[in-house]
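Sample intake sheet
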Amino acid sequence: MNIDVQDESDSGSGQAVAFTLGEKEEVHVLHPQQIIAYQGPATGRADRFMDVKGIYRKRKLIRSDMSGPCHFVAALPPGYRVKILKLDGKSDLLYDFKHLFFYSKGVTMDTRVLSMKNVLVTRDIVKVKFTGNGIIGILTEGTVCEAELHPYNPLYVDAGSIIAYPENAKLELTVYGNHLASQHMSYHWKMTGHGPVLFQAGRQNRRFERDNNDDGIIKRFLREAVPFGGVFIK
């Protein structure tokens, strides 16, 4: 299998991802509406309803099973990128379903039910865990960063920027810093444990552009000076 990520960094368009599958190779695309070109046998694409326990039971999720030999191209909206990760059977990371773009044959997708506290913050009932050997494609907004957890020294990460974290991680919703800092920042996950955490920079980039381009100096001052102004002053 060959995957070619095409990106014209100077344009405002999103990425294009080209897949070339050989005989007996297969990839499952979780956003089939983004497939814009296909070359191969008509039987090489089979769409089906997903049966993923605990995920959006009231919605009908469709997955496209693409089998080789074939070649197809999927387009991503502006601002989104795809991060390709290789699994070796040892990963215990949990992902948001909304970040999943594709996964290859040999990879199994399971679910983990979240605690009620986490559900209220993330608005997701479950996380997704992959097992097996193969590759997965993750949708991100901007650059993907990685940090290693420590058993006792906590890592604070913006709650809305998290892509994946280890299943063993301990999470606590909080803010940090002095009084002023804790009042105008977004909620963060205080995380301890073992293993890597993946998070994206694009969400913060949009906030920075909003603060510096769309708002006047008075509104920006109020957002920073008023307790929790970043939450209530839009």
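Comment: The helical segments are 116-122, 179-184, 202-214, 217-225, 229-232. The longest strand covers residues 126-141.
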